Amino acid sequence: MGSAAVILNSDGSSPQTLSFVELLPYLYQTFFGLTVLCVIYINWMLYYRRSPCAHEYRADNEKHFTDEKGKQVPFPSLSDESTLDLSVIVPAYNEQDRIRPMLDSCLNFLTDVSRKWTFEVIVVSDGSTDGTCDVVMEYVRQYGSDQIRLLKLYENRGKGGAVSLGMHSARGRTLLFADADGATSFQDLEQLESALLLLASNDMTECAKKLHAVVCGSRAHLETESMAQRSIFRTFLMVCFHFHVWLFGVRSIKDTQCGFKLFTRAAARILFNNLHVKGWAFDVEMLYVAEELKFKLVEVPVHWTEIEGSKIVPVWSWLEMGYDVLKIWFKYRIGSWVIRK
């Protein structure tokens, strides 16, 4: 027996019963109206809500750093010529417990007498509410602001936003993005530098000119071991995410999410001027743009140790990243986002 609906007459007389077939026009009109509203909303989100070109807002008080004497000094710009060999960008959000050993390892390696490169470390506090900034300022007073600087963001921008603003404040002809947890050994930087040297035809001065290259640290060689330590469900989600990235995002790099990547200055200028995604999936957009522009991309195995205190929330963060990856592909495909060269 078919479904029916009861509708009262306007004069209050006995109700009439409508069959499902008679209700179809009303259902169709409702569905059509909702579809129109959805189309209008999606159109507004994709075309009118923001510019197709990436834009990074930066408050006036985020354009300066405090030196070892307490003086406010303006940051340089990524558009300027390089004045150092290497800039290390470290995004940090509430990392007071993990950043100290990371900075000790980083600075001990970079100040080794066997290394001839000049360097700077820029720690980007992404709206931290703990003692992260105080810890970093201890190192500023110890090493001097020419070697380590604090970029203090007063609002949380997400990891991608923090890395982008740090890159825009750097002086190096090569720029390294490194996670604050210190999970990757800094000794592996030499492997990334060697790979970059090969791309530059053994002439590192090319890195300050027109060489567009990215060398990515990779944990892909550790995947079998890590899968053995994970639950079946988490392993399934990881495999699905990697396939999702390969299908909609990046195909030349197996491990897009490793927080240890080395850029030439020319590459960083373009990539971080095109960064729309501010969350965990910013690496995917960055490498997606690099592939679209035919940049030189290399993946180098690195030593990696899992450090407690990760800000990634299992399952939820992966779902968020999966959505962002799909959004990256979709928005570039329909022209809602465009690449500025």
From TrEMBL:
Gene3D superfamilies: Spore Coat Polysaccharide Biosynthesis Protein SpsA, Chain A
GO terms classed as biological process: protein N-linked glycosylation
A GO cellular component entry from the record: endoplasmic reticulum membrane
Keyword Acetylation: no
UniProt KW keywords: Endoplasmic reticulum, Glycosyltransferase, Membrane, Signal-anchor, Transferase, Transmembrane, Transmembrane helix
Domain of life of the organism encoding this protein: Eukaryota
Domain Glycosyltransferase 2-like: residue ranges: 87-192
Enzyme class: transferase
Keyword match Endoplasmic reticulum: yes
Reactions the enzyme catalyzes: a di-trans,poly-cis-dolichyl phosphate + UDP-alpha-D-glucose = a di-trans,poly-cis-dolichyl beta-D-glucosyl phosphate + UDP
Transmembrane domains' residue ranges: 26-48
EC numbers: 2.4.1.117
Bilayer topology term: Single-pass membrane protein
Cell compartments where the protein resides: Endoplasmic reticulum membrane
Pathway: Protein modification; protein glycosylation
GO molecular function, one term: dolichyl-phosphate beta-glucosyltransferase activity
Family: Belongs to the glycosyltransferase 2 family.
Protein name as catalogued: dolichyl-phosphate beta-glucosyltransferase
